[in-house]
Design brief:
This protein is of the alpha+beta class. It has helices spanning 38-48, 93-96, 108-115, 131-147, 166-176, 204-213, 234-237, 308-344; strands spanning 5-6, 11-16, 22-28, 65-69, 71-72, 75-76, 81-86, 151-159, 183-190, 218-223, 241-243, 247-249, 257-258, 261-262, 267-273, 283-286, 292-295.
Length: 345
Amino acid sequence: MGSNSFGSVFRFTTWGESHGKEIGVVVDGCPPGLEISRERIQEALDARKPGGSAQVSPRMEEDRVEIVSGLFDGVTTGAPIAMRIANRDVDSSSYERAKSVLRPGHANFTWLKKYGIFDYRGGGRASARETAARVAAGAVAEALLESEGISIIAELVQVGDARGKEMGRRIERAMTEGDSVGGVVEVRCLGVPSGLGDPIYEKLEAKLASAMMSIPATRGVEFGMGFEAVTMRGSEHNDAFIKSDRIRPESNMAGGIQGGISTGEEIVVRVAFKPTSSISKMQNSVDIHGESVEIAMGRGGRHDPCVALRGAPVARAMAQVVLADCLLIQKSVCNISSRVVSHEL
């Protein structure tokens, strides 16, 4: 099975399953000389881990990270950075009765068609448990971005059709009814210099969209005005340029990216998450033999009524990794260009 790695220069590879012994990540391409503490990575993981409130999965994982390579005296050496996180609160018993059921909204059917086997215990490799490893990789990328004055904020801005204080009520209502609800996470990238990204096939928004859509349960990504742009005219949506402290767009309708390259303005990305597939309501499906079955997947299981709530730290991490990758690519391009110019002179 491929597709376990992400990135070009700053690259990470994750391993592990929801109910396996552990999950982990190897980060390669991180420059030497960056100060990275275990506490930094742990803080990022704590924002994503389950069991933090009544509105998220009650699975009590500490998500204690162990850094096993790539650091010396708290500083990156340029070698691969390997991190592991133990799965300590594993209970597979509730999945035994449904191991042959093609669960609605889950990856059982498609994985079986592709690989002929599927780990039904919490979704195995397809579980959102894997995203903890991404968050650890994002925390490493954050150290690089901070050295360049770049910061990233991600927050839940919509649940169902509700915003603000009503979002929590929507989640609670769904929980009471044995159901789930979707949400929107907004990611804002500040301090990003102009010039990151590439045109045509390696556009910055294409890389960010790929990163966000790789997160479990995502269903859509938009930048700047996004889909609302179809209701506007060109005279309204165009980002006219002005001269202030620098030449810059007067507005930011495009969300900080034009022609696939960053403008130097705040990059604004919104990610839509579907309602959690595992719910307590009875649903109809079939088993692997095609026999009709009824199943209430959430009963006895431990699931988030709104995956978008814990999706914010994951979306932030993926943005961190993409920007770190683009930053290193840009630096290498600039170095090559300067050497070519110097040689010609």
